[in-house]
Each structure stands twice: as structure tokens, then as C-alpha cells.
Write a structure and sequence with these properties.
30% helix, 14 helices, alpha/beta, nine-stranded mixed sheet
């Protein structure tokens, strides 16, 4: 998710603008909500308590092979932790099971240089290498043999034809590991030629021009038929392996099977059932690590807000969701939205999503609800949510930036169903710019989350400040909309909500399509 700095928010927020901001009153209160309840909730939600949930998620991962990925005991233990906390707080909790295709590995992948000096490479899209899609299982050890490499790389992408012709393998020693460079032909042609030459394994590395250096793509082989383990590495790793006398050990042990995972849905016992305010975060991580920032942070912030909110009496029904299998393609939230009737969807006034709220090299990102930054707006009402988040940060005199509605997180199924949405995001693999470093602090030229989808996404991989500030922002908007969503718009059928609005003293609101 790429973001850009919101106009008028960096050092240009005047004292007048802050003073006029409804959500900026004393830093937290809303002009269209129960002011006292907002203040109390924000005060009750402390970063220290949010971090305790992260510590619990870390302990769960530590006891379960270092991961909380859906379809494993680590995720199930995370589910049980969240559900227990919510039930104890008095919520009606539903555990929603669904099946999905688990695509991972049985044992951790291995790419290790054994000579001239030992070095173990990190697996994952933010590491040193990945297995190519459709690579078969297998292990190999042997000398690395470069195949028609262009080092240093040519000035233009696709200037390398490494491995594209059978003649590239003249003199190739059978049983060696074929090292090839990205470029010209597709990966399958390269690997097929390596197989025909007797390679025991194949490694393709990124070509080396700007934008073609990292493990930042999804390399696929295009179907069955490959018989040797096949990896894709960064350009840096490829250069290292191209050195004379290099030998490696490789192992790939994939598993693809149907498994069951779960959503956790908690609903307040009080509040208008025809006007539901919904907050959510995905509870799962990736197989490579504990998933503490991605997305223990969003889950922990949402959970703590829910626990503290249990002590209030909202006018609107509050619903908190913790999604399974987001990392496999938003499967949990998609399953949930698909399972609702049209009438049930219409009762959801809005959805707030929190995915990565404590990145160590953070920016304060707000989803671009009105579309003015990226050209893609959310459903009507999303602009109001964005504005209310902006008012929160303005009230704290903190900078903020827009982040695009790319469909990359669990708001996707909601906006596809026409439900107003918004949320917060502190950044993943995108590099922090010099301008962002000047405004938000941190380090330019490195990712907003240097441990994104990696083994190092541990309790050490968070910003306490971002976690605390964003948890307060979650609490502010939760309490604001718990008492009044008229600024968002009235989506449910008028007849279904008329009695409830009258009972709560609401004036009829214009409907928003």
C-alpha cells in the first residue's frame, strides 16, 4: 500500500483549524457524540495494556513453532485468547468456522551456502528468497554453476537471456545447482532447460536493475511438470552465489491442503440492532514469523478498545471482528460478508479496519476515503470517516498521510458491498522517503516495517508510540460512532430503522446510497 502526504497536514495545520476540529476538542471529543464517553474510553485505552495483548500473541507463537498462521495451533490459540477476553467482558461471541486452502510448508525452507563460507539465507518475500510457485518438494546439495550470467547487469531490464536457450548450458555439470538470472524468457523456460541439462536444483535471481533487485514478486512456474526444487532470490544473493567455488544446500517441503480456520465476532448486548458499528482486524500472521506488527498490533488495539468499551452503554450496536486467513487472500472477511443477507449488510453503518498500526519506522496513514489523494474513493460516508481520523490527529498536533483503498486488507469485501469504511495503516514493505523521515521521524530508505512477513516480526518489531496513538484513535472513533452515525449516512431500510431512531431521539437522516 503506497501513501502520500496529505495536503495541508504537515506543519500547515493552523491553530484555527485545530480549534474548529470537532474531534480535536481536548484532543479526543466529538461534537456529534457523547463527549464524556469518548474522553473516558480514550483515557482507559492505554498503550501499556494494548502491548500486553501483543506479549500474549508472542508467547502463543513461541509455544507453537514461531507462527500464528491460520490453520495451525498458533492461530487457534490466538482465537481462544481473544474469544475468552471478549466473553469475560460480557460480549456475545460467535466463532465462525470456514474452510480454506492452506498453501505453505511442512518444515522450514532451507537455502544455505556451505562453501566457501557458511551462510543461511532468510525465506520470505521480505527476505532473501522464496520458492517458485509450483516448485515440487525436494532437497539438493551441490556446486553452484552460473548459466550465461550478465554481471554487472545490463542497463535495461530483460538484457539477460540467462538460461533461455539450451545452448546456455554447454559444459554444465550434471548434478550441479543451476544459477540463472531473470530476464528475456519466463521462469519455466529457464527451469525446463536446467532440468534437461541435469541440474539437481534451480535458482533464479532478480536481474539487478533498479526495481529488479529484491524478492518482491510472485514467481511462478506455470503448472506441473517441474521435477527439481526451484527458488527465486534477490540480486544480492544471486551475486554471492555466482562466486567461484560456491556450494549450497536447499530444501523445499511444501504442503497444500484444505484446513479449517475461524473468525471471531463479538457483539455488544446493548445498542440499536438496526444500526451496527463494526471494527475489525485480521488475527492471523504468515507462516514465517509470529506476526506481531502484522497483525497482532491491529488485533491488540481493537481488542483493548472492545474490552474497555464493554463498560459503556452505546446507542448503536457495536461489533468487533477478528478475521482468519487474511494472509491467504482476505478469506475470513470475505466469507463473513458473503454470509450476510442483504438486510444484514444494510444494518452495518460503517466498518473500520486496523491492519498494522505499530510499524517501527511508521507513518500515520489514514485510508483515503474521499479519493482525493489516490483517485479511488470508498462508498459514501468513507470520506467522513477519513475526515474524523484526520481531526483526531490534528487534535494531537500530529502529522498524518493518506493511504490508498487498494483492496489489500479486510475492508475490501465491505467496500465492495457498499459499506462505508476507513481505518489506519502505519506501513509495510514500502521504503520511507526523505520527506516522510523529516515529518514523522525514523529512517529514510528502509521499509516502514523492516520485518514485514518475516521471522523478525516479533514483539521487538513495534513502535510503542504508534501503537499508543493509533489505539487512542480507534477508541475515539469507536466511541464517536457508538452514539451517532448520522454524519456517515443511514444505509438500512427506513422502515427497519424508524422505530429505533425515534427511541434514541434521532432526527431522520438523509439516506446515503
Amino acid at each position: 500500500m503506497r501513501s502520500r502526504l496529505s495536503k495541508g497536514t504537515i506543519g500547515a495545520i493552523t491553530a484555527v483549524a485545530v480549534a474548529l476540529s470537532p474531534l480535536a476538542l481536548s484532543g479526543t471529543a466529538s461534537a456529534h457524540s457523547n463527549n464524556n464517553s469518548v474522553r473516558k474510553l480514550v483515557k482507559a485505552v492505554s498503550g501499556k495494556n494494548v502491548k500486553k495483548h501483543l506479549q500474549a500473541f508472542q508467547a502463543i507463537a513461541d509455544r507453537n513453532g514461531g507462527t500464528r498462521v491460520s490453520g495451525t495451533p498458533g492461530f487457534d490459540a490466538s482465537r481462544d485468547y481473544v474469544a475468552h477476553k471478549l466473553r469475560s467482558a460480557g460480549y456475545d461471541v460467535t466463532i465462525q468456522p470456514f474452510e480454506f486452502t492452506f498453501d505453505g510448508y511442512k518444515t522450514p525452507p532451507v537455502l544455505k551456502r556451505t562453501s566457501p563460507a557458511q551462510k543461511t539465507y532468510a525465506y520470505g518475500f521480505f527476505g532473501d528468497y522464496v520458492a517458485m510457485g509450483e516448485s515440487p518438494s525436494g532437497a539438493a546439495s551441490g556446486t553452484v554453476q552460473g548459466v550465461d550470467l550478465v554481471l554487472p547487469p545490463g542497463p535495461a531490464a530483460n538484457s539477460s537471456s540467462s538460461g533461455c536457450e539450451a545452448s546456455d548450458f554447454a559444459g554444465f555439470v550434471a548434478g550441479s545447482v543451476a544459477l540463472m538470472q531473470r530476464g528475456t524468457c519466463n521462469f519455466r523456460v529457464k527451469v525446463d532447460n536446467a532440468m534437461a541439462a541435469g541440474a539437481s536444483a534451480a535458482i533464479v535471481f532478480n536481474e539487478g536493475q533498479p526495481g529488479r533487485t529484491e524478492v518482491d514478486l510472485n514467481p511462478v512456474l506455470g503448472g506441473p511438470g517441474v521435477t527439481i526444487p526451484s527458488f527465486f532470490t534477490s540480486f544480492e544473493v544471486g551475486q554471492e552465489l555466482a562466486a567461484a567455488g560456491t556450494a549450497v544446500t536447499m530444501n523445499w517441503d511444501p504442503i497444500v491442503e484444505t484446513r479449517t480456520t475461524y473468525n471471531v465476532i463479538a457483539q455488544s448486548r446493548k445498542g440499536d440492532p438496526n444500526n451496527v458499528v463494526m471494527l475489525g482486524a485480521h488475527l492471523d500472521g504468515v507462516q514465517e514469523g509470529p506476526g506481531i506488527n502484522d497483525n497482532g498490533s491491529g488485533s491488540a488495539g481493537t481488542l483493548e478498545v472492545a474490552l474497555q468499551f464493554a463498560k459503556t452503554k452505546p446507542k448503536n450496536k457495536m461489533r468487533f471482528a477478528f478475521w482468519g486467513a487474511e494472509e491467504f487472500g482476505l478469506l475470513g472477511s470475505d466469507h463473513y460478508v458473503a454470509s450476510l443477507t442483504e438486510a444484514e449488510r444494510a444494518k452495518i453503518a460503517l466498518y473500520l479496519n486496523f491492519d498494522m498500526i505499530a510499524s517501527p519506522n511508521y507513518t500515520f496513514g489514514i485510508y483515503d476515503g474521499d479519493g482525493d489523494a489516490f483517485g479511488t474513493a470508498g462508498p459514501p460516508g468513507s470520506d467522513v470517516i477519513e475526515e474524523d481520523f484526520e481531526k483526531f490527529f490534528a487534535g494531537r498536533k500530529l502529522p498524518f498521510t493518506a493511504t490508498a483503498f487498494t483492496g489489500r486488507s479486510d475492508y475490501g469485501p465491505f467496500i465492495a458491498a457498499g459499506i462505508p469504511a476507513g481505518g489506519l495503516f502505519t506501513g509495510a514493505e514500502v521504503l520511507k522517503t526523505e520527506e516522510e523521515a523529516q515529518i514523522f521521524g525514523g529512517t529514510a530508505g528502509i521499509p516502514l516495517d523492516p520485518c514485514y512477513h518475516s521471522v523478525c516480526d516479533t514483539i521487538a518489531n513495534i513502535s510503542d508510540k504508534a501503537l499508543d496513538v493509533n489505539s487512542d484513535a480507534i477508541a475515539t472513533l469507536a466511541a464517536t460512532y457508538a452514539f451517532d452515525t448520522r454524519a456517515i449516512g443511514d444505509r438500512a431500510p427506513a422502515a427497519a430503522k424508524s422505530a429505533a431512531r425515534t427511541a434514541h431521539g434521532h432526527k431522520p437522516a438523509d439516506s446515503a446510497s
